[in-house]
């Protein structure tokens, strides 16, 4: 943990903030090809934070226009393959650099985090009890499995999720008519059906469907509720920005750019 005692109230040196984030999110413990941490270096002093799910020219420009000094995102600039700084990738980098905006990305660490992670936040919103890690990616469990305090009909469960995200869910009712034991895997978790069934869960809550996994729900006999990749990943960046406000007194804003996916 870096010493941030020399920072003035309401502002923090970028390097101190990044060190704090890397430590809090346990970035070094993840073998994640999407490059977690500071991806673009901007201004040295942070006074205002913006948070968004995705990195795009729109979100970067919106962050710059909002007066933010740093944009926190879940999906950063990189997904594990080298990219030339050309075309839209160039436009993204240029938008941030021209605005002197820092870009900090937290992908798997922000799915998995026990306090501000996407899955922990949804588990808390659903009051799951007896929670345990679930859904291994690159040697780490990033999801949460647990039990609802009382049994819900599948329809009532879907309604609760819709209230939570504000969007309509897609439901594949491969299991029984009721929901009690739930596994949550934000984003792209449609390949987690077998794992959920092996744990004795009756329902998998995830983000985005994949056609190749359609029959899994029905053949493993569990329900799968797809709440949207974007919608299941707004929780982490918002909670992380709120954490920075608590810890450093930095004001923040969530930039809502839904993808419909
Ligand atoms: Zn994602």
From TrEMBL:
Keyword NADP: no
Domain of life assignment: Bacteria
Keywords, in A-Z order: Metal-binding
Family: Belongs to the GTP cyclohydrolase I type 2/NIF3 family.
Protein name from the UniProt record: Nif3-like dinuclear metal center hexameric protein
Lineage: Bacteria, Thermotogati, Deinococcota, Deinococci, Deinococcales
